[in-house]
Structure prediction request, 703 residues.
Amino acid sequence: MKARNKRYAAILSVVTVLALALSLVAVPVPSFAATVVTSPFSDVTSSTSYSTAIAFLASQGVVSGYPDGTFKPGNTITRAEMAKILVELAGKDSVAQALANLTPTFKDGAQIPSWAWGYVNAASGAGYIKGYPDGTFKANAPVTDAEAFAMFIRLLGDDWTVSGPWPTNYLIAAASVGLTSGLSSFSANVPATRGEIAQLGYNAALSAQYTTTSNQNGVAVNQLNAGGLYTKNGSAITNAKVTQAGTDSLTLNNTPPPYGVESKLTVIGASSVPALLNDTVTAVVDSNGLINYVEVGAAAATTTKTLNDGTQTAAPAGFTAAYTTSDNVITAVYDANNNTYLLFSDGSTVQFTDSSTNVTVNSDVHQDKLTWSNFTAWLQPGDTVDYTVSGGVADQVNVTHYDVTDGVVTATAPAASTPTITVGLTVGQDTYKVTSSTSITLNGQAASLSQLQKYDVVSIAADANKNAISIVATRNTVTGTVLSQFGSTVVIQPSGGSPQTLPMISTFYGTVTVGQSATIALDGQQNAVAVVSAQPTNQVVRYLGAGKAYSSAASSSVDALFADNQGTTTTYTYSASANTTVSTYGAGNFFVFATQGTSQGFTYVASATYLAPVQPSSDNIVVASASSSSVTLEAVDKDTGAVDTSYSDNAFLNGYLTISAAAVYNKNGKYVGFAGLQAGDTVSVYAAKVSGTWYFAIQDQSR
Prediction:
């Protein structure tokens, strides 16, 4: 049994190759929209038993219905009707036409309906159907299951393999070649129904056929015919991927030119020709080179993963890394045999090949498939990849690439004849068309374009014509006073809440200023993306230096230690009615204090501005030298101990920084001044830049 199944699988592969070779022949594509037929009979729907088989045989002219438009799949079938089905499946209808005026030679030949004469003559002459021992044909007798199995086995040329007593021999033979697939039940002597015969005919059409020839010694030789589906009209292409679908044409497996379709096209599993895009199908091509039947196959299991976004920093064991050209993120790897694989963020891989992997990027089909030469132009780190696998190799790769990442909605036009969404970017803005097929989510829930608002943060994937394929929107804001904006970090103090330190994305949209009351839009990872609104305060902010608060906001006074006093503790008072706040937050509780008004008396402390930590992830900050009035710091690589001179910002120009005014503490928070530091100490530095001036606080982690 297993050997036979492998044999048939191999033949179907050959059939597919042969049929694909035929596709290279140019076929005129008609300029009309095909009429799609999903069910040829009024009493057959998708839920009817054997509906696919019935529709297939009807599309090929093998079966027909009753005058009232029904098929009546539960009715029995006569031997005369069976003769027609066998002849049509074998593609011998021309033989039947030639013999249509000859009375069959059976004893009851004159009683056979005249419409069936040609079919009975052709079927009996080919050996598909036989008479009874008494010489009669019994045209109107119902066909039993066992008889039907025998007839189809003979049609396939497998009769020479059958041995053993009737009817078990044919039941076994039918099951062994897949004829019984899809049948709900069968019994040798029970009359077969029209629906069951349709299923048997459909199975037979999907099977290989033996033909009998004679060798040079006149000995009969049975050999498999790799001719494909045995329909009267043409051949079939099996397991084909629809890579382009118009209203009147189909491209299969990215192999041009496209096939035209018949004006009346039977489609099983889809409602229109365009809806077949990316489906795996069986398509029957008629003698005119046009497709007259398309059946959507069972969907292959689809896996969704994220192309490596930098999470995987090295090639998996047994692979050699290949990189994108811009950011050195590993997006593909090679094995020892130079086969190429996509690399995902979870460390898994999938092989792709130029010959068999079909690719769409944001629904744009790439005819030249996926080769390394164009790989980096199509796929970017972090892209979402849906793929199916056949034979261990990706056969379909659908990529969703977000052309816009963390843009800000500036306008929508949901009611326009062509709905659009306009997105603000770091430089300028861009507009995308929204169609009925655009996927839109808002905070993880399905949404419509009309639900999106200005300053929602969006990522958009679009095709080459700027039709949005996917819009992922996030609505999340924080409002408060901007306490600090240092490098790529902004600190904001919400009313009644704790200060929030927010990473700013590299394409931050808008500007913020310390002291403003601002609303900032955040993405799904709590990164600051854009300024929704910002109002300047009337407060004049004066930065005194770094200090440490010793009392809470509930007190009527606050002790603060300032750098310009070199450790002197000064008490400032404030009025509770003035809505003043002194907060304790941040590593080491270091602050730059801001005051309201211009008086040097500082009658109260109005707010506290956080000093952001300056601590490169790959380096330690170490004291190079210290005196009573200044300290020189250097960044030292944690792994090599070498001074890192790669910094180009003001904080560590050329890897060194000399500070002559700062508050210096030990790790217990006690003020020690510059003299309390020694060369080689590892320190933490906190800093803020205000109007071009840097303010620092240093904490010695070694003491």
